[in-house]
Structure formats: C-alpha cells, structure tokens
Amino acid sequence: MSEKEPIGVIGVGWVGLVTATCFAELGHEIYCRDIDSAKIGLLERGEVPIHEPGLKELLERNSDRIHFSIEMGDVLANAKLLFVCVDTPPTYSGDADLSRIDAVVSELETERGHALVMKSTVPVGTGRAVERRLAEAGKQIAYVSNPEFLKEGSAVEDFMNPDRVVIGGDPGSEECAADAVAKLYEPIGCPIVRTDVASAEMIKLASNAFLATKISFINEIANVCEEVEADVAEVAIGMGLDERIGPKFLSAGIGYGGSCFPKDVSALKQLAGNSGYHFQLLHSVIEVNELQKRRVVRKLKKHLGSLVGKRIALLGLAFKPHTDDMREASSLVLAARLQGEGAHVCAYDPVAENRAQELLAGTQICDTAINAVEGADAAVIVTEWPEFGELPLGEISEKMNNPLIIDGRNMLDREAVRDAGITYEGIGR
Ligand code: UDX
C-alpha cells in the first residue's frame, strides 16, 4: 500500500479517468466510482473507453493502484479527498446542468471528514451553494475548487506539465483541505494559484471564454481577409509575435467545438445574464462561431452552384485531431447543412468512425480518405489530422469528379494542391 494520500475519483469520464490515472502514476492509491456499470466493467477488464494518447499505457502500468466500483461506499471508506469529475452538460437554456453534482452531494456521508474537490466545470457560486447545503445538513465536509484545464489529445501531458494549477478554498476548515490538495500537486512542480472558491470557478470559465474569443476574433479577421485579399495565416504570424498577443489560438478555421468551449462560453454568458449583466462580447463570440461553420456551404455553392445531388467528402469528423470526440464538432453542423442542401455526404475520420456511425445518420462513412473523395464534387478538410497533410494529391485529383478542396483548417500546402490540378480554397487566404 502506498504511503501517499489515497484519492477518490467520482465520475470516470474523460477528466476523471485522466485524473485518476495520473495521480496513480504519482504514487497514490485511487478509488474510482461511476454509476455506469458497463463502463466500470470495461475498466476492470483493462479496457479504455476513450481515445487519449498515452492513457492506456499509463493505466496498465498503474492498474494495481486503481480500483473501480459502482458503489460510493467503496470510495468513502478508502479516501478522504474526493475529486468530483462528473459532467455538467448545457441545458436548453445554456445554463449548466448540475443534476449529477447534486446527486453526488446527496450521497455523501457525514462522519469521516471528507473533502469534496470539484474538478467539474461549474457556474461561479456553485461551490458556495454546495458548502451551504452541506453545512445546513450538518455535514462536516470541506469544499475545494480545483478546475481542470486539460486539452483532449494531450490530457496526460497537460496533467503532468500544467501551466498552472488553480486551487480555491474559502476561509475556515476548508483551508487545510486546500493545503492537502496543493500537496498532491507538489511533485509536478508547477505554479499553484490559491484563491477563494468563487474566483477559482471564474478562472476556469474566463480562461475558456477568452480562448474562444481569440478563435472567433481570428475567424472574423479571416473573413475580412477574404474580402481584401490578405492572408490570415500571415496576419496571425505577424500578430502572434507580439508577446502581449502570443501565437497560440490564432489559427483561423471553421469554428471551435468540443465538450468545453461551446458549453463554458454559454455557461458564462448565462451566468452573467442571470445576475443582470448582458455579456455583449460573448454573445458575439458564439454567433461568429455558429456562422463560421456554415460559411463552408457558401464557398461550395460559389464553386458548384446548387448542391442538389452533389457528392461532398468531409475529411475529419472529430472536433479536433488526436481524439474521437465529436461533441459540438463542426462536422455535425456541416453534414446536416449539406444534406439540407440536397448533397450526398461521404466522410472519413482516422479514429472517429464508430462515433460517426451513431451521430451522422444519412452520411456515408468511408474507411479511407481516398474512398471518401472518389467521385466527389468537392472535399472539405474539417479536422486537421496530420495524415491529411500527406494525401496523395495526384491520385485524389484523378479520383474526384470535380477536383476541389476547401481547406477548413488551412493545413494544406496551397501550391502543391494547385500543382496537382485541384482547385484550392482555404479560410481567409
Ligand atoms: C479546451 C481547453 O483548451 C482546456 O483548457 C479545457 O479544459 C477544455 O477545453 P479542448 O476542448 O480539448 O480543451 O480543445 P482545444 O485544443 O482547446 O481546442 C478547442 C477547439 O478550438 C477545437 O475545435 C479547435 O479546433 C479549435 N481551435 C483551437 C481553433 O479553431 N483555432 C485555434 O487556433 C485553436
């Protein structure tokens, strides 16, 4: 048995599983609980239900230290620090759905002096509300906010080498719980930002909203570049060298997606609205992102006229490379819009094939990029998978009915595409 503090992880979705595995790698005994018995069964057999680089190997290496159960009692009996990693999806109103967190709080027992460490992204004020609820119920449970900043596709690396760790605890008994959480991250050796609970919650929402704003900003610059014949890729390089701006998150494309940005921007906008403040900028960030996904349809029509009966190939379906996650992916909106225009949509993704079969009714899922583009009137790069940079352009040119590529992620070498006899159009170039 390890001498390090045992850790409970409640909810082993993507965040929970990465958190559990990485803390196990740091030498802790981990007790995981999820209400999904099928998932727990899978994990007990050593299978990993998500595609995340390095996770399977790390899980195998630490399998002796990670225990899975569907019973909350197994976690409560073995660990004091309980990392809550349940999902908080958006409701129809755009507010975060906190029902899974409510359910966890309802299940907590009283007597063992546990600390609830919130990793799930929650509206500002959730921590204080939970603290109040626990206090009113007479439960001696500390509350700590420890938001996650993991990126899908590099989550293990992000966990082990974060830019910062944020730990929020309010004055009182929580302070020592926050100290205990800070101690867990000491071996990682990164800056640790200690705040009150509400500020920690806001750091998470504001960070994601700011990054989404950066993307919508560069996407609008791209749209203007198209009008004035400037090249957004060059503009981004010139802007990014200014240290105050920085080069990251300045890639123009067909919009951001994923499980976090759309949800968190919307949650912050709603939070502001619910407290009487109209967050003008975030309304625009969301609107720009929605319109950006649809601009591809306009580009296709410019080249092809009506899309009725046209065969359009989508290359990449995941919301970004190195993941099979299609939540809020631009591909979903695009496929639906193209079908609405009467096009026949065929698609290929290196890893999201199974998810795509479930999510994209009416779209023909192909097993290679070449099969997807065969006979197509246009191909659209939706996700910047590195393998699309190596496409055999000569073969593609021959196989397409009409050689046209819309590069939704500005990843291809324009000249090479044109040299192969393919019409090229990027975003803002
Ligand atoms: C994000 C945050 O980065 C992370 O800190 C948080 O914890 C969860 O949300 P993730 O959803 O994994 O992580 O994706 P990220 O790599 O940040 O990209 C989000 C979206 O923005 C993707 O759809 C990506 O294609 C898009 N994007 C990103 C751009 O369109 N342009 C860019 O320059 C960068």
Please estimate the helix content: 40-55%
* Oligomer status: single chain
Radius of gyration: 23 Å
Strand line-up in the sheet with most strands: 3-2-1-4-5-6-7-8
Outline the biggest β-sheet.
Answer: 8 strands, mixed
Low-confidence stretches: none
Separate helix tally: 17
What would you call the structural class? alpha/beta
End-to-end separation in angstroms reads 58 Å
- Number of E strands: 14
How would you state the average pLDDT, rounded?
Answer: 94
* Beta-strand content estimate: 5-15%
Rough shape?
globular
Ligands and ions found: uridine-5'-diphosphate-xylopyranose
What would your notes on this structure say?
The chain has 429 residues and is an alpha/beta fold. Helices cover 44% and strands 13% of the residues. It is built from 17 helices and 14 strands. The protein has an 8-stranded mixed β-sheet, with helices on both faces. The protein has a 6-stranded parallel β-sheet with strand order 11-10-9-12-13-14. Helix 1 (14-25) links the parallel strand 1 and strand 2 (30-33). Helix 9 packs across helix 11 and helix 12 crosses helix 13 (330-340). The model has no long low-confidence stretch (mean pLDDT 94). It binds uridine-5'-diphosphate-xylopyranose (UDX). Uridine-5'-diphosphate-xylopyranose binds next to helix 9.
